[in-house]
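Structure, all three chains, one model.
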Amino acid sequence: MSLRAYVITRIFLTIPMILILLTLVFLVMRVLPGNPVIAMVGMKASPKYIKQLEHQLGLDKPLWLQYVDYLVDLMRGDFGRSMIWGKRIVIQEIMDHFPATLELTIGGFLVSVLLGLLTGMIAGIRSGGKLDASMRIYSIVVYSLFIPLLGMMLQLVFGVWLRALPVGGRIDPGLEPPTVTGLYIVDSILAMRLDSLLSALAHLALPSFTLGLVLSGIYTRLVRSSLMEVLGQDFIRACRARGLSGRIILFRHALKNALIPILTMMGLQFALLLAGAVLTETTFSWPGMGTFLVERITYRDFTTIQGSIVFYALFVALISLVVDIVYAYVDPRIRY
Amino acid sequence: MLLEVEDLHVHYYTKRGVVKAVEGVSFNLDRSEVMGIVGESGSGKSTLGLAIMNLVPSPGKIVKGSVKLDGKDLTKMSEKELKEIRGKEIAMVFQDPMTSLDPLMRIGDHIVEAIMAHEKISKEEAKKRALELLDEVGISKDRFNDYPHQLSGGMRQRVMIAMAVSLNPKLIIADEPTTALDVIVQDQIMDLFSRLRKEFGIAIILISHDLALELEVADKIAVMYASWLMELSNASDIAREPLHPYTKELLKAIPNVELEDQELLSIPGSPPDLHEPPPGCRFNPRCLNKMPICEEKEPPAKIVSGRFVKCWLYGR
Amino acid sequence: MRTFGFSRFSCMVKDAGLDGYMMVFGLIIILITLIMAAFAEFIAPYNPVKIVGMPVVPPSPKFPWGTDTIGRDVFSRVVYGSRTILIVILMSTALSMSIGIPLGLISGYIGGKLDRTFSLIMDSIYAFPGLILAIAVAAMLGPGIYNTSISLAVVYIPTYFRMVRGQVLSLREQLFVEAARALGATDWRILRRYIFPSVFFIIAVVFSLNVADAILTEAGLSFLGLSVPSPTPDWGFDLKNGQRYFLSGKWWPVMFPGIMIILLALGFGLLGEGLNKVLGQKEVR
């Protein structure tokens, strides 16, 4: 199968996944007990007002018709309007907050991969030894670190005691670069603003380290077991018999082969990062999707909640698609 | 002498105890000589092959003996010195060509990498040499950029051989190089070996379970059983008059091509568990010439008319 | 059960080396938390929802872990908080197991279209960020112990489903099932006699690791204010409450519940890891 055929098939396979996730969101939002309108306006509101709101949201229609409306609206890119905050357009509000989450998630991703690779490699090379055992304990312990507590402790140490890093927000006020992508780091580089870049990086440091450290433990295990398996394979012995140096064998042959199965897991890893990002954002007052969603939940802004969850679902599906395509591109056994 | 192996012992330290995989094996090999090592799986022949390169995988260890290449003892060398020997002086071809190449590396780059690991030449020159080598082993040059999975088993084994001869080694150790291949490809690969030996004067150690194959190509043959070297002599002598009862059984088990419908003979019984080898001679439970002493004492190593044999039949 | 005495157990632990000790350490943490929850009335010196002192009093003999932002005893709240989290975890796990395991068994055993449909649905849920799914459900259901349990249960159904299904698929191919079928055993009998016992071992491991994860998710929900309603002691929520005092050096309202969350999650994580090796070893023998 050619790479193009593979990519096209994979795109088609994403459609059922998206449909299932959208249906799931619909079920959670409309079928679960609990009337969103009453949840929003409270039990004491007049029945007439409740009826009016229900009609406005289409909640008085039969369920299947609501479902069709929901899908059709989404297909047109219509996420609805906020039920409070002067009927703001939901997708626009999401787009205002999403870059912050993306920036944090990428930061956390890089930290977790870096730490995970390092610890996993140490464990994999020294498998069975004391270092291996310590790395195993590392992977279990960091995964149990509760993100808010870890975040606050880092804030205390680096923000308050050492006064080295800011403890909240995305950038110092006034230094925001002109918006192009919404990612401050990219935008500051595009605008050639060094002060903005440094400020954005400093603000990103603690949140992304918090998120990355907690999730690095998973990579430690994945890298360890994958590397151990590859190191036991025939071609590694063949490399040694050819007199290649240990460094070349490890970096050019073993690691590359060990990382391919890990690549296939990256989609699921990204979902974990997004979940962790919600807690990280709340801890560090990071103005991303997570803080946005939680804030709107307290206001019972039903349409915005639904829109955000749908957006998360679409993003997860997109990531898993991208991961699979990258995988196909990297592994020659699929490419050719 | 190119290679002198003396009283080599290799032990594996497993959880169930010590497995003595090679015990007291000695032999010599001259330049451009072909030696066959024959034995059943688990006889220690593959371990012996790896031990010659000092490449026994953990938990295995060379505990005694020496392997001298041009007089230098490989068992006493550091990893760094060994790196210079491996691939350059001694090259190895493994059994399964399907798994012996890095699946993520183009076959041409494999050869380039092998050359550049030992010689200080530019990448272009190495590539030129790699292309010549591919041609030499009968693979068309436009396959240079193929990945291993795009090649058949026979072609991959040719790539392995191209890599093995790329640095003009003095010795190639081939561990069951054709076992995973079909018969026609097997013949082609063996022809390739004999041609390389003639052209470059490379000595070859051919490890195989197939005595018939060894008899065709080898100058001399070592027979291994349960980590012991049982017999060692010229291939013609072994074909004409095998000394050890085990060798006799192996010869009988070779199917005769001229006689059709002949039932395939195999030696009754199975090789011993090396965690608990039988007392006395290790072959005694399966031996047709068993004597009382065979169950009691290890047989001595004897030289019988210039030929090595380890058996009580030839006296004390 | 006579053969499984303490000496046999300690032997198994020693054989497993590091994993054995990890398992024992995990068990101790879990046991301490269980005791806390069971005897909260006897252990806690104060009523956890009553204001008993000045706000944010540092640890002292009177308040061993200090008081929280409105003057409730932190130690008492932590002790009672163990009850909240354990009940939620217990109910949610029971719920996701009782849905995930039977579905996995059926799906894996019957196979075909049904299996493909189930797997596609479960895989899609599995791919969705767990905490965000729980947030969505919790947001719709509103706060409360039962509602939080349901939110968590939804997240972990696919984990049990996938694990059981995978196990059934591999076992189904194995000879003993084929042999049993040849002898005319009914499908139900095969499931019960042969497949369920083999699946049991792996359920124990996945259960522990899963509970470790669920604890962090519950604490997360609670930190975001989406778990039980306000006066009920709950570790994640208490931690959130203390946050605004934390950076001015008043660490006790945050640290104690926070450390308990970490320890309990770690306890189940270590137990799962250890069980995996210790039970796995037994299987090999």
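Chain B is about 30% helix and 25% strand.
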